[in-house]
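Thread amino acids onto this structure.
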């Protein structure tokens, strides 16, 4: 299975490549060996913390609205 991985070479060049999981390193454009970085989980966390407040706010609002309408029905 292929997916995008970030690689950083010995000279600090960052490259994103669409490769198989087994490809833990590759040759950078500068000729040096580039190793896969563990930036994927960090990226996931960013996406999560970025979308969470919105999703949470939406949930809180719809939940409150639901409660309100339910209270109306009961009164
Ligand atoms: Zn390089």
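Threaded sequence (75 positions):
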């Amino acid at each position: 299975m292929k997916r995008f991985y970030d690689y950083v070479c010995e000279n600090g060049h960052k490259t994103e490549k669409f490769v198989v999981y087994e490809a833990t390193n590759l040759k950078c454009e500068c000729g040096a060996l580039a190793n896969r970085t563990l930036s994927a989980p960090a990226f996931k966390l960013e996406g999560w913390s970025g979308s969470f407040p919105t999703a949470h706010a939406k949930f809180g609002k719809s939940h409150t609205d639901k409660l309100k309408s339910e209270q109306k029905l009961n009164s």
